[in-house]
Amino acid sequence: MLLWPDELEISNFRLTAFQWSVWQGGCNMKKHFIILIGAALVAAVIPAQAKVSQQTLDNVNAAFQGESNAAHRYEAFAKKADAEGYVQAARLFRAAARAETIHKENHKEAILALGGKVKDFKLDEIKAGTTAENLQAAIKGESYERDTMYPDFLKQAKEDGAKEATRTLLYAQKAEAEHAKLYQEALDNLSKKLDAPIYVCKVCGYTTTKLPARNCPSCRESVSQYVRID
Question: Any idea where the domains of the chain sit in the sequence?
Fold first, then answer.
């Protein structure tokens, strides 16, 4: 029990009981403040815990790796199309590569925002065929992502309530649907030597041959976010 003297002498200062009480209270406040600062510093250096299921984090990581490989593959296909004189096909491959790079970065941001870690991996080796063969391979890959991979991933992300994952996966799925359609059109018209501009949204990767009037049909951002691929 603390005994309160009528007066207490500390360092040549004479304190009344009331002054002593105030002084003690100030010291306690300082201690509490220091404890709070320490807790904040500890929280700042501890990695954020995942907010969603590990399955969703694994799915977005798989999508990140898939889009990374797709961008790498389409760049090689574009060079092959240029070498064979297919200007429009080369442009489409370059546009798709740009879109897949955007998806890759969006997936990465979602993983980190959800408290996950981007897994290390090695890009696939590319063996480009003829431009016709490359278009067929691209159609197969984009159709799988549109019809199977992204719908499955989106279902899990929505069940988890993972908005960041849902958004980036949905952006990619919508773009892949357009890619599949554009690749089929390019294959059907390969002998016609078409030469038309292609546009890619820098926000979501949506790809089109017709520039939207005002907003992106996928992410709803301004048309000013579109870049022309030549």
Answer: 54-193
φ, ψ dihedrals at 201, nearest 5°: -75, 130
First to last CA, the chain: 84
Amino acid at site 130: T
Class of domain 54-193: mainly alpha
Please give the order of strands across the beta sheet that includes 207-208.
Answer: 207-208, 198-201, 226-229
Local confidence band at 93 (pLDDT 50, 70, 90 cut-offs) = very high
Q: Which residues make Cβ contacts (< 8 Å) with residue 40, sequence separation at least 6?
A: none
- Sequence length of the chain is 230
pLDDT digits (tens, 9 = 90+) for 110-128: 999 999 999 999 999 999 9
| Residue 47 phi, psi (nearest 5) | -55, 145
Torsion from C-alpha of 213, 219, 225, 230, nearest 10 degrees: -80
